[in-house]
Amino acid sequence: MAHKRPNFFYHLHPPTLPEREARFGYTFGLGGISLLLFLVLGVTGVLEMFIYVPTLTDAAESVRQITYLAPFGWLLRNMHYWAGQMMVGVVILHMARVVLSGGYKGRRFNWLIGMALLALTLLLDFTGYVLRWDQDTAWALVTGTNLVNTIPGIGPALYRVLVGGQAVGQATLLRFYAWHVIGLALVAAVFSGWHSFRVRRDGGISHAEPAGGPTPRAGREELVRTESIAALLTLAALVGLSIFVNAPLGPAANLTVPVAEARAPWFFLWVQELLRSAPAFLAGVLVPLAVFTLLSVLPYVLDRRETGIGEWFNRPGRLAQGLFLAIVIAVSALTARGLLR
Amino acid sequence: MTDLNERSADGRGPGPEVRPTIVGLPPHPDRREFLAWLTRGSLVAISALAIGQVARFFSYEPAGEAPSVIPVGKPETYTADTLTYVGAARSYIGRDSGGLYAIDAVCTHLGCLVEHSIGDGFACPCHGSRFAADGQVQNGPASKALRHLALDVSPDGQVVVNRSQPVAPETRLAANS
Amino acid sequence: MSARRNLILAAAAILLAAVLLAAWEHQVGQPPVKMIIPTLTNRPELCLTCHDGIEEISASHPVAAFGCTTCHGGDGMALDADLAHAGMHGGRNPADLAVVGVACGGANCHSGDPAAGRDHIQRVDRSIQATYAGAIAQVRHAFGAQPDLTAHMGVHAVQDDQVVSPDAVPSLTAFAPSATDPQPVQQFSVNCLNCHLWAQPAAKPYFYRSTGCATCHALYDNDGLYKGGDPTISHTEPGHASAHHLTTAVPYTQCDHCHNRGNYNLPHMAFVERTDLAPAPAAETEDATARRLAEYYQPIGQFTRCEWELDCVDCHTAREAMGDGDIYSSQADAQYIQCRTCHGTLTEPPKLAAITDPNDVALRQAQVNGHYILQVGDQVVVTDRGEKLGQVRWSGDHLVQTMKATGQTYSVPLVQGSACQQKPDEQASRYCHACHDHELQAP
């Protein structure tokens, strides 16, 4: 009997894939969950755009209109916030899965696209944080943009482009709004599509090729079913979290009043900890760039062998895996220290 | 196991004699169709409901460069041996035996506003820099002292702070208390 | 395996549906939002959503014009308690003297031009009830820490650029005893700094009160319980005003939250509370007159009938209690009302003044109080220092006193033409008490 022509959604999936790699316990669906969270962020974000106003006088108030006045506004804002934070966690776990199972072997360009997506995710989270314009986030914006100022040579010019003037103010808020809703989001959407396309073009999900001939394969319906289960459970967790834990909101920002406690967003706490003891340019610009570069060149420098692909804790990649885990532990330790202050 | 890429005799796909055992599909067409109809129907119903709530969300209807010379009040309001924070000028105004002085509250590290700690000196809440009462760095990632800013008296008798004009730490504005 | 897979899928779908239902319930279960847009700020406020039923603070501060955040600060657009209350001036009490300038101040409000009578905050800051300068000066002098009885120190440092009275001082420094001060003075600073407008009260019946301007103007019942309509304010926890209300109709019970509560024991540098009253306030059913007579003054007090039938505010003037702008060294210098101000002497009737200016402070005071009516053209008693007592009005043929707290009227008997045997130079109240004390038979 002839195969039915697949709809677009089925068409995006490979007709079949190796059964071993189709199981949830191989990839944990992390890439797919990231994509789902990105879509949720897009939908909830666009809905918030109907009320949010990116001006100094109205930003904090419009966030409260969403949170307290608009029907289900509280749910949209909480889902947007939690999907964002979950996405940072999920993409890092996805990266860990790729490193620890040698998934980047033979597909190093897609690894680079993935690193770009990591950077975009963190920048999207940071620009989004700033938009709620309360005392906690406004000072994070001041410090973060001042870090750019410390870059020798192009620093001050880059700062003015970023800030839209000589000091953080209305122009900065508007620019960060534009970056967040379209500038970074559009690039991230395109890169997400490219990243997913490259998976197919590089031969489907990274898989081991055992010596004993062709392996059993699963059909796309099976894959879609697994994805659906993961999607439903992720959404249930997201909505559940959004009902019971509110997205944080502090007193409206006032850049003429000092605050008793200034905390960076949780994913930059490690940078804030470094900034306490090392010079600003080193701790705030060079070290994060170095970490990012190190991770990017893992498959180019530390694990060039293509053997061991699709194998968890494969031997050829042990150096890369070790370095990756060391970086994760270091960043986690710094983050924990920042949290416990 | 069957290789799905294997062509049947006429080349159009797996022949009728090869029934591929694809994992995960129920074998009876009518059950399959029913489940598909059920799924599609539920999705339509849920989408309609969701769009309805989104419509409710829609139904809600809601009712330049900063100056660098900033007036901070009359000289008499600043009493001897006290330090007063003035938000509009983002500086601490103090008075000692020589007269009035202004210390820039913007931390020289990464721009947060420093707080006046109990006793003398200032502390920055962002990365822990500490400064002495005269602005000199005592501790922390900051490497430059807090700036002293130029003070002047405006024609209508108010003290003004000039944030774009740093002065030496010993500079005082002689103004009666 | 596919059946199990379908089961998991169905279960996941049901889980999501359940969670979405929970979200729906949460939305539906939220109480309706109450929003006001006060005309003075034009920014919406949601405070009344939770504080639904709270009383209007006063007729002169209508919530439709002022809203809540004008005086209280805080975040009017938040519905989470922590966020809504962040940045409130003075927590529950914006009238505390530490924040009153921000909360109640302003040229058109309560820190404006003295000539227009709008300088309440400046006057209260320098008043003896806020500086406690008299007690501090007396104790320091008594134990050798200062050579004279002139006040040099107060609870907080204050300054007066325009000293009017010859008894007043130009400034006070903050009272901070040093290790070199005599021991009693140090003990005084630990035990006895409880009765001034900055001090937190003892948390017991009869003592419950607020601080700052609200010490007098926010009435507290003797049991310290809130009896108003705001559901978020506890009705069982003592330490609340009886209602969210500011008033100038202040009964004696309010003054007695500090005054007439006991006596100082200087050798022990301690406050000894009076013991003649029941530990808890009396029930409403008891005889009100007998209770008033028993509560009003301590058993050691000497007073006439009008001094317990009227409230304190019916005689003691606004400038006495709130300050007249000068910094005084003792209560004796600040307090100046005498019996003859209303009753006159054998040779002179009480001094009257006519109200001619429609912006007269006395007219505003009458409007704010609400228990007595004054109009332009009315003649009222005026004190030696020029203060009009609007509640004592010449009706045409006799002098009428209206109680500020209740509106009850009294006809004021005049000394002139009576059988009173007073001497012209003995006008202090103790001379009147010699014959008119309430325990003596009326002469």
Give a structural overview.
The complex is a heterotrimer of chains A (341), B (177) and C (443). By secondary structure, chain A is mainly α. Chain A has helices at residues 8-11, 19-22, 24-27, 30-48, 59-69, 73-100, 108-131, 135-149, 155-163, 170-201, 220-244, 269-277, 280-296, 298-302, 318-340, and strands spanning 16-18, 217-219. Chain A has a domain at 14-209 and 219-255: Cytochrome Bc1 Complex, Chain C, CATH 1.20.810.10. Chain A has a two-stranded antiparallel ribbon with strand order 1-2. Chain B is α+β, with helices and mostly antiparallel strands. Chain B is 18% helix and 24% strand. In chain B, the strands form two sheets. Chain B has a six-stranded antiparallel beta sheet with strand order 1-10-9-4-3-2, with no helix packed on it. In chain B, strands 5-6-7-8 form a four-stranded antiparallel beta sheet, with no helix packed on it. Chain B is elongated and about 105 Å long. With 443 residues, chain C is an alpha+beta fold. Chain C has helices at 2-28, 63-66, 69-72, 81-85, 100-104, 120-126, 128-131, 133-142, 183-191, 214-217, 252-255, 288-296, 306-309, 318-322, 331-334, 339-343, 361-369, 429-436, and strands spanning 153-154, 158-159, 171-174, 262-265, 270-273, 352-354, 379-382, 388-394, 399-402, 409-411. Chain C has a five-stranded antiparallel beta sheet, covered by helices on one side. In chain C, strands 1-3-2 form a three-stranded mixed beta sheet. Chain C has a two-stranded antiparallel sheet with strand order 4-5. The longest helix of chain C has 27 residues, at 2-28. At the A-B interface, helix 5, helix 8, strand 2, helix 11 and helix 12 of A face helix 1 of B.
